[in-house]
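thought: fold this chain, then report.
action: predict
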Amino acid sequence: MTDLVPPNLPALPVPPPAPPLPPEPNGAEPLTPANLGGRLVRAAPGLVRLAATSSWHLFEWSFKASVDTGREVVQSLASGNLPIETFRGIAVDLRQVGRQALGLTDDSEQPLVPVHLRPVGLTAEELRARGAELLYRSADVWFTEDVHPAYERILGEMAPDEARILRFLATDGPQPAIDVRTGRPLGIGSELIAGGLSMIGLRSGVRDMGRASAYQNNLFRLGLIWFSREEVDPERYQVVEVQPDVAAAIKQAGRMAKVVRRSIHLTPFGEDFCRTCLPIAPEAYWTGPQLEL
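observation:
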């Protein structure tokens, strides 16, 4: 039989031996496939103890959390809190525990306090410290403050249409407003049908006329406008009294409807706010008589 392998083939190169593994830091023998099994067998008791310790700590924590949660539920219900509020607070506490377990918060060392027992806002000592800081700054003759610190927050709580109302009041001055009440002898038992009816929303050009009253209420809440008992020029009320919403309120009040004339104008705080925050030319501001608050 003829030999199929051609003669005189060159010999294959022999790969160089692998470099020796670096020694372990503690002087132990290097980890190789030959000694891997033996090292795992020697480490098995430690792994078993670690697993047992972890399981026991997990069971201990679960049992303690269950007992604390049950005690919290009983105490909360016994104090008269609603069940939905109680379980909502427990859910928030458990969520906080989970975030701490995952390392998502930095306050893992702080004790967990139920939501309904946590203080809201600053403490009395912190408030007193801030008040003392204000008094100290007020006594500093070198301290100057360009704008009121509340202006930034007020701008964030205003709608665009409310800025239109402020600009209108700043340039056109106090505006007539009407309250419609039911008429009763001597005014006893009179009921308010509609209050603060005016043409401010229409004349200022707000986009949503249905919210004109809500806009004025918010500006009043912010201390920028005032619903005054003082009257403006009597002739200016004639246009307001023929508006559809005023006519509807008078019709609802009955035959003895009573129309009370009032006015709406900027407060001194509102005037300063407009001069600081709104782009109004100085010569465009109202220069007529100011009404009393």
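thought: worth noting. Residues 33-78 form the longest helix (46 residues).
final: tokens above.
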